[in-house]
User: Fold this.
Amino acid sequence: MQPNEPSPAQALTARLTHWCAADQVVADVVKALTTAYGTPLTVALLDTPVGSDHLLETNTIVLSTKYAEPGLATVADKLILYRLATAFAHLNVDTRDAEALQTYNGRQLRLWRLANPPQGPPPAEVYRFYHGTNRCNFYGDGIQLTGLTPGKAGSGIGCKRWERHDIGSESKDQGWNTVTRDFDMALSYARQHTEWAMGRKRNEPTLRDVAGEGGLVLAFDMPKKAVDGNDRWRQDKSGDPNNFQTEEAIPAEWIRVVEELGIPGPLTAVAPPPETTEAPAKANPTPSNRRRVYPTSTP
Assistant:
């Protein structure tokens, strides 16, 4: 490191400062956290190789050391925004205050969408298909080299159908790759992979490397005339017209990463159910006709 070069932690804090300057909601949330904890929000590095968190005692977002690497800057940004959202959630909005709840939820939705922005529409003559998976399935010798192949989909793992919308209990159709025209559907699967890596899924408390096993979203375009009427393409059984399965091999060069890390969220809150007061019991106008009820015993 050069004498005037910022430390890795300072560089990550500078990324947070950049977000504050670029987006008013980020600035407002950082200000709220600074006010609540009495010290400026900063970003620091963990000594451990895996994990991220927000430390309440020091008002510090901490990331594992690997996120100081330039190649993971985009993933680091998303984790900073996610930990900003979790820290904001700890401030405990008054859910009975409709205006405060609306402001809180709006800020949480904005933080989530900054980390996972929506995609624009495809050209009119093509279908744009998305595929949610984990990062280790794509990088290395995965999909970035092999593409989406029926042979892999026909393995013992099979390929998920999305009618249950849950990576822990999806159905499998061997030989068919599942894709969707709905970016948020694919993002949902990417997010669940990230939750799994973060140890947040039921019966899976082990903390894993999000950079390696978090979820991402892939995309590729197909001419509509190549899909419509082709028996190698079919809709799945979810009932969602956006969800398709295909037996065709999708070459790696057609596939691009459109979301590097699907983060959990948005971390919105809900108002409590309205309080109900029971009406007082009406007096019986003919008490003499009331029958006494005795307890019964079972033989």
The chain has a mean pLDDT of 86.
